[in-house]
């Protein structure tokens, strides 16, 4: 059974292969597409639009005024969530889809889910850069809490990577795993704080905070 130290060592030993497969994944994703790298902004854009609609509807029902600043709140939450769900979606079937390579070569299985997570992290960086530019353009206020950005991003990456490796291995033995993951990710956004503010739920917010992606 692999432990964390073994996985880290395998990732380091196969870093060149992981880099090669990561580049391959990015190229295959955007090759011969009209929008190209702009597709990295599509899913976050859809979630942000949905979140804005939900916020406007809730403000209307509660008799409150919708503030444009709330859109930035949805942006900050939707970009990490998009990275998480996209990584799991591709990584969970990574071993099965690359089985022909595993059968022909003696390479470590961990390189495939890791490469998919890193390729999705590239999209995460692109979307984050665009968000920063938009925030600067609209002169959004910045607090000292921004110093937490790097450690929180590192935790998010490791959390996503761990689940990706675990679920990709489980999907080798039980193909139902991929379908279960699809269903959970489809409705998972409604159990996070992407669309909502934590104060809206009163004492019930403690249960929402049990969600690691909350």
Topology diagram in text:
Layout: H1 4-13, H2 15-30, H3 42-61, H4 69-91, H5 94-97, H6 99-104, H7 111-137, H8 149-173, H9 176-188, H10 205-208
Number of helices: 10
Number of domains: 1
**Portion in helices:** 55-70%
What's the pLDDT, averaged over the residues?
Answer: 80
- From the N-terminal CA to the C-terminal CA, the straight-line distance is 31 Å
Number of strands: 0
Global morphology: globular
Largest sheet: none
Describe the structure in your own words.
By secondary structure, the chain is mainly alpha-helical. It has one domain. Helix content is 69%, strand content 0%. The protein is built from 10 helices and no strands. Helix 2 (15-30) crosses helix 7 (111-137), helix 3 (42-61) crosses helix 4 and helix 7 runs antiparallel to helix 8. It is globular and about 65 Å long.
């Amino acid at each position: 059974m692999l432990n964390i130290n073994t996985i880290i060592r395998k990732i380091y030993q196969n870093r060149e292969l992981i880099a090669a497969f990561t580049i391959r994944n990015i190229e295959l994703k955007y090759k011969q597409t009209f929008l190209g790298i702009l597709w990295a902004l599509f899913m976050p854009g859809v979630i942000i639009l949905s979140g804005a609609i939900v916020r406007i509807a809730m403000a209307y029902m509660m008799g409150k005024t919708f503030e444009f600043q709330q859109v930035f709140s949805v942006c900050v939450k939707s970009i990490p969530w998009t990275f998480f769900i996209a990584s799991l979606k591709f990584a969970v079937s990574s071993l099965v889809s690359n089985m022909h390579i595993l059968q022909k070569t003696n390479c470590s299985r961990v390189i495939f889910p890791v490469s998919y997570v890193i390729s999705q992290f590239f999209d995460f960086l692109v979307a984050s850069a665009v968000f920063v530019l938009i925030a600067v353009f609209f002169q959004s206020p910045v607090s000292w809490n921004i110093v937490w950005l790097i450690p929180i991003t590192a935790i998010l990456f490791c959390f996503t990577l761990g689940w990706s490796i675990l679920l990709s291995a489980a999907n080798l033995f039980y193909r139902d795993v991929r379908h279960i993951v699809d269903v959970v990710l489809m409705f998972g956004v409604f159990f996070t704080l992407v669309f909502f503010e934590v104060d809206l739920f009163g004492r019930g917010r403690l249960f929402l905070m049990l969600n690691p992606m909350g």
